[in-house]
């Protein structure tokens, strides 16, 4: 373990806030953790993001480390949990996006009140036009052109994870905008988009 005599000592020092011990643990395990995470997600950017979050979380919760028995299994368990949490969040987001797309089409096709739909559509377009340029383009490619996340990523030459982040940020903004800018529209949007 280099200058550290044992795993126990390293864990104890990290739990006490020793930055040198933490840096040593990082250098010792980063390569294997990177390989482990990448072998599951096959996404370099996501791997880097999970590693960053992993070590940030470990440092923030370092006081709790004094209870762990071995560093390497602990780090890999944390990495696995970070991955599982990511996949759960993405599944929820994918489902939410599908519901939003499906329900907006349902609303568009079944409404008997043309004025209500026009008002909703105009407000939605106002919100979309307020998005930053890249986010606006991603939003329109997904919802109007019905391109997949992979197609958008290829079209814009960016990673799929960037497409997802931009898209969900756009959806969140449009939803908040609609809820803020019209009682009737807010009611409709809450019913169909919640």
TrEMBL record:
InterPro entries (UniProt xref): RNA_pol_sigma-70-like, RNA_pol_sigma-70_dom, RNA_pol_sigma70_r2, RNA_pol_sigma70_r4_t2, RNA_pol_sigma_r2, RNA_pol_sigma_r3/r4-like, WH-like_DNA-bd_sf
Gene Ontology MF terms in the entry: DNA binding; sigma factor activity
Keyword Secreted tagged: no
Domain RNA polymerase sigma-70 region: 26-91
All residue ranges annotated as the RNA polymerase sigma factor 70 region 4 type domain in the record: 125-168
UniProt key word Transcription regulation: yes
Keywords, alphabetical: Sigma factor, Transcription, Transcription regulation
Pfam families: Sigma70_r2, Sigma70_r4_2
Gene Ontology BP terms: DNA-templated transcription initiation
Record-stated family: Belongs to the sigma-70 factor family. ECF subfamily.
Protein name, per record: Sigma-70 family RNA polymerase sigma factor
Originating organism: Pedobacter kyonggii
């Amino acid at each position: 373990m280099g200058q550290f005599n044992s795993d126990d000592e390293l864990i104890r020092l990290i739990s006490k806030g020793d930055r040198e011990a933490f840096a040593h643990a990082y250098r010792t395990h980063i390569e294997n953790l990177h390989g482990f995470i990448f072998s599951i997600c096959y996404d370099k950017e996501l791997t880097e993001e999970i590693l960053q979050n992993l070590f940030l979380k470990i440092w923030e919760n370092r006081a709790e480390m004094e209870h762990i028995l071995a560093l390497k299994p602990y780090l890999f368990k944390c990495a696995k949990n970070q991955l599982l949490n990511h996949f759960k969040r993405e599944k929820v987001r994918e489902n939410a996006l599908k519901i939003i797309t499906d329900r907006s089409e349902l609303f568009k096709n079944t409404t008997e009140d043309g004025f209500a739909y026009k008002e909703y559509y105009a407000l939605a377009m106002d919100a979309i036009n307020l998005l930053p340029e890249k986010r606006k383009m991603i939003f329109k490619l997904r919802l109007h052109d019905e391109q997949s996340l992979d197609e958008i990523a290829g079209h814009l030459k960016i990673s799929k994870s960037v497409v997802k982040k931009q898209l969900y940020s756009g959806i969140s903004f449009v939803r908040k905008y609609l809820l803020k800018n019209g009682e009737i529209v807010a009611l409709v949007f809450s019913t169909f988009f919640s």
